[in-house]
Amino acid sequence: MCLGVPGEIIAIEDAGSLTAVVEISGVRRSVNLACVLAEGVPPESLLGQWVLVHVGFAMSLIDAEEARKTLELLAELQNLAAAGDPEVRD
């Protein structure tokens, strides 16, 4: 199963290698922006934007509302799993 997680771009790590720092539920990770950055557009233009992150790559831009809803759903699933709900499986 593949899972993309919403993250907010909070810093540009290295413009030359198109890497940025995203924050996902309070955790910061380095991601590659190559899939979401148009040619000739500076990486700094993406600061504050939300992206769907999968295996270290920002796969697509998403709006803040979609990101919020997805993060809420993931938190709910985590809470159910922590409570031992038999309907929630790894």
List the helices and strands in order: EEEEEH
For the secondary structure, the number of strands is: 5
Through-space gap between termini: 10 Å
CATH architecture: Roll
**Looking across the biggest beta sheet, what order are the strands in?**
3-2-1-4-5
Total helical elements: 1
Quick recap:
The protein is of the alpha+beta class.
Note down, in words, how this protein is organized:
- The protein has one domain: SH3 type barrels (Roll).
- It has one helix spanning 64-82; strands at residues 5-14, 19-24, 27-32, 50-54, 57-62.
- The termini are close together.
- With 90 residues, the chain is an alpha+beta fold.
- The chain has a 5-stranded antiparallel sheet with strand order 3-2-1-4-5, with helices on one face.
- A hairpin with a 4-residue loop joins strand 1 (5-14) and strand 2 (19-24).
List keywords for this structure.
90 residues; alpha+beta; 1 helix; SH3 type barrels; single chain; five-stranded antiparallel sheet; elongated
Please give the structural blueprint.
Elements: E1 5-14, E2 19-24, E3 27-32, E4 50-54, E5 57-62, H1 64-82
Antiparallel strand pairs: 1-2, 1-4, 2-3, 4-5
